[in-house]
Amino acid sequence: MDMKQQLSSAKDICLTVDLWSSRDIRSFMGIIGYFVVKFTLHSVMLVFHRFHGSHTAKKIYN
Q: What keywords are annotated for this sequence in UniProt (predicted)?
């Protein structure tokens, strides 16, 4: 089942956002969605990309 099919079967979804830096000072941002279907917890990676600049609220929002 692909991600769109999984998400369409979910009634609600919880999102988590995480930012971190690697040892060589490259920053990344990930957004993961969590949802329950038929009493089973599922998770999908929605976004994962390089994050440039300071980890300020304005930059994260944009």
A: Membrane, Transmembrane, Transmembrane helix
What are the angstrom distances between the C-alpha of 48 and each of 25, 32, 37, 39, 59? 16, 9, 24, 27, 15
Alpha-carbon distance of 31 to 14, in angstroms, equals 10
**Domain range spanning residue 8?**
3-61
Give the helix ranges, DSSP H, for the chain.
Answer: 3-8, 57-61
Q: Alpha carbon of 58 to those of 16, 17, 46, 48, 55: distances in Å?
A: 17, 14, 20, 18, 8
Tokens of 7: 């998400």
Q: At residue 2, does pLDDT exceed 80? A: no
Q: How many CB atoms lie within 10 A of CB 59?
A: 14
The pTM assigned to this predicted structure is: 0.73
What per-residue confidence (pLDDT) applies to 49? 92
